[in-house]
Design a protein that fits this description.
This protein has 170 residues and is mainly α. The chain is built from 7 helices and no strands. Helix 1 runs antiparallel to helix 2 and helix 6 crosses helix 7.
Length: 170
């Protein structure tokens, strides 16, 4: 496989992978170092990655080893036995999976919005336009737009909750 493929996949998953590492490692600078180590290992072992499989899962497995190594190398600061460390990593996996399912649910819920509300959300978050600018552009008051966006957020929140509960069979 080529380096362009690696960089494309890594960039698509970089933020999610870093969020996973930060959840496991309390020091932001250490988390950044671990991400660099993970990226280095991934680069070296990219030939062993099977094209078409879950790149994030592969990267996360490497991150788990690096996180485990981090805690073992910091014995004077962190005194976890391997079972406790494994429990921390597994708990973070559960949180990560819930986040993933909420992100998928959000996509479906966005598709249920009417076109005007979807356009507002896209302007605000995809185009990163301030609420004030959107209000001016649409000739509405800022407070009225904030109230409308609050309603849209509530609808999205309810939809996400109902969707994820339905997936869990509740």
């Amino acid at each position: 496989m080529n380096k362009d493929k690696f960089f494309k996949l890594f960039l698509q998953n970089n933020k999610k992978l870093f969020a996973y590492i930060v959840c496991c490692v309390p020091n932001y600078a250490d988390a950044e170092d671990i991400l660099q180590d993970v990226a280095s290992v991934m680069w070296k072992k990219f030939d062993s990655y099977e094209d078409g499989t879950n790149f994030y899962a592969w990267a996360k497995q490497i991150a788990k080893y690096k996180i485990s190594y981090y805690y073992r190398s910091q014995k004077d600061i962190w005194r976890f036995d391997s079972d406790v460390l494994q429990n921390i990593i597994e708990a973070n996996d559960e949180v990560s999976q819930k986040h993933d399912s909420r992100a998928v649910a959000l996509q479906g819920c966005l598709n249920k919005l009417n076109s005007n509300d979807l356009n507002l959300i896209k302007q605000r978050f995809q185009d990163n336009i301030s609420v004030r600018e959107i209000a001016i552009k649409n000739s509405v008051s800022v407070s009225k737009l904030y109230k409308h966006l609050a309603k849209v957020y509530a609808v999205l929140g309810d939809c996400i909750t109902k969707t994820t509960l339905a997936w869990e069979g509740r």
